[in-house]
């Protein structure tokens, strides 16, 4: 009889390792046994990053100096690569001093974390299939045998997506790009205007004679949209060269066909903004950098898991499958809940999802979780400090909420973090107040130029920069919310107007209770 694990995690990438580390920390803090296994197909942790990004440079920020200690919660906001650990012994700054590190540094850091936390990783173990029995336990089939678990976390990352375009088999897939010298003095078409496509074009910018980048959608720049999955300026040299007419072009079009001819390819395109015009263009090389999709499609057949946008597994607010109880997802695969809104597709976002998932698993495993209390007279300052220091709510804006509960005993209790979906489902008990604090942006899309946004000081509802939202629930489904004004450096702790507004808001909540309490000082 195979041993029964509490949790099996598929994948030793950053998403899976963050779940494992946080869950192990929670178990050790409470002297609770934990039987956990991590299954990894590669020879080491972080296998995805041994190949991607293809041209070697990450676009996740590694800011070394913030004015506070590297181990501080505040500095965590600007370190987009490190995993979140209690002791902060292993940070990306120990492996790279570059603002945009090389992928090798990330792989080295992840493997150091496995070593430091003595994580139970089984390498070179290929996941073959999954089943679930009548008792709700999972069996994971691998080339090393079968393994059983009460809870299964799938953190197998992403794999390249190749669209169904006639002749796409003639294109070189992003991962198979040749050395840049191969493209010297050639006409090159890159399909895909995301960071992979732009990165590929930029790599050969000074080698190719002409580069065109094509996709159905227009180019979206991250600084305009607040979404880091859009093109970062570090990858946007082609945009500059296109506008300056420097043998580069961005095509908004449908790729109708890719036909092999002589020493190259005739590519037929149908333009989106040219009254239906079609054109045949000749290229020596075609590169398909068309993005990624979740690397767990076998779950469709094995367990009936549904997918969103044919890309991500369908999940609830607690990262559990919408179809299969006890099946969870971590890492990039959690991005279906906030696609193109916040940052669950990237380490600096999904590490907090994984951290939260670990707490949900701990609850299922009956690991007691500590809940700190906050005195009533200190609650305003406590919330403002959290809004100033927390990485969770700063890097998952509008998606992760910091949750507190006021009880009839006259004190506040920290309930940790919840997703926006989880908060929506919560109800306040009689005589209690549920209060959630989060950060979010205003509507940047209402302005034509995001670098020339007019401000209306004194009106928080007109704030466009990231700023605080405070919402609350009391018995009977009653809800309240206020916004607090933005601050240039997002430093809210010492702002007297914020203290006054938040204090008045909380006092108004106290007055809704059956047992009125004294005011906040």
UniProtKB/TrEMBL annotation:
It comes from the Bacteria. Keywords: Oxidoreductase. Coiled coil: none annotated. Transmembrane segments: none annotated. GO terms for molecular function: flavin adenine dinucleotide binding; monooxygenase activity. InterPro entries: Auxin_biosynth/cation_transpt, FAD/NAD-bd_sf. One of its GO terms (biological process) is ERAD pathway. It holds the Pfam family Pyr_redox_3. This is Thioredoxin reductase. It comes from Hazenella coriacea.
């Amino acid at each position: 009889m195979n041993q029964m694990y509490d949790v099996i995690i598929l994948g030793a990438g950053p998403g899976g390792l963050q779940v494992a580390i946080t869950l192990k920390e929670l178990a050790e803090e409470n002297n609770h046994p934990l039987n956990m296994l991590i299954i990894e197909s590669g020879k080491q942790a972080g296998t995805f990053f041994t190949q991607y990004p293809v041209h070697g440079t990450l676009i996740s920020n590694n800011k070394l100096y913030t004015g506070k200690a590297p181990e501080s919660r505040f500095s965590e906001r600007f370190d987009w690569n490190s995993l979140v650990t209690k002791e902060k012994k292993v940070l990306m700054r120990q492996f790279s001093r570059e603002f945009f590190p090389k992928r090798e540094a990330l792989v080295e850091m992840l493997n150091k974390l496995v070593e430091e936390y003595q994580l139970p990783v089984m390498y070179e173990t290929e996941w073959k299939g999954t089943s679930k029995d009548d008792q709700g336990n999972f069996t994971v089939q691998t080339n090393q045998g079968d393994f059983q678990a009460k809870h299964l976390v799938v953190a197998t990352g992403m794999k390249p997506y190749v669209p169904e375009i006639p002749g796409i088999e003639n294109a070189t897939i992003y991962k198979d790009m040749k050395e840049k010298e191969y493209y010297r003095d050639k006409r090159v078409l890159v399909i895909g205007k995301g960071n992979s496509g732009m990165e590929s074009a930029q790599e050969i910018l000074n080698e190719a004679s002409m580069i065109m980048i094509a996709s159905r959608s227009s180019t979206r720049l991250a600084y305009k949209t607040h979404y880091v999955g859009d093109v970062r300026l570090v990858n946007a040299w082609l945009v500059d060269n296109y506008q300056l007419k420097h043998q580069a072009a961005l095509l908004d079009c449908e790729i109708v066909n890719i036909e092999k001819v002589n020493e190259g390819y005739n590519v037929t395109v149908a333009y989106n903004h040219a009254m239906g015009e079609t054109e045949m263009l000749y290229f020596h090389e075609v590169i398909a950098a068309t993005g990624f999709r979740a690397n767990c499609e076998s779950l469709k057949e094995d367990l009936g898991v549904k997918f969103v946008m044919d890309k991500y597994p369908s999940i609830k607010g607690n990262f559990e499958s919408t179809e299969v109880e006890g099946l969870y997802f971590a890492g990039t695969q959690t991005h279906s809940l906030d696609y193109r809104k916040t940052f669950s597709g990237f380490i600096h976002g999904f590490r907090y999802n994984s951290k939260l998932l670990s707490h949900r698993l701990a609850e299922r495993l009956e690991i007691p979780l500590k809940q700190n209390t906050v005195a009533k007279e200190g609650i305003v300052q406590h919330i403002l400090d959290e809004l100033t220091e927390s990485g969770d709510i700063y890097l998952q804006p509008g998606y992760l909420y910091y949750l507190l509960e006021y009880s009839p005993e006259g004190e506040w209790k920290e309930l940790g973090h919840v997703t926006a979906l989880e908060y929506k489902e919560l109800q306040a008990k009689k005589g209690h107040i549920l209060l959630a604090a989060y950060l979010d942006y205003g509507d940047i899309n209402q302005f034509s130029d995001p670098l020339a946004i007019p401000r209306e000081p004194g009106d928080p509802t007109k704030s466009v920069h990231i700023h605080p939202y405070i919402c609350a629930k009391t018995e009977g489904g009653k809800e309240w919310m206020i916004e607090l004004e933005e601050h240039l450096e997002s430093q809210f702790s010492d702002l007297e107007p914020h203290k006054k507004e938040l204090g008045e808001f909380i006092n108004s909540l106290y007055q809704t209770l059956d047992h009125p309490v004294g005011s906040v000082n």
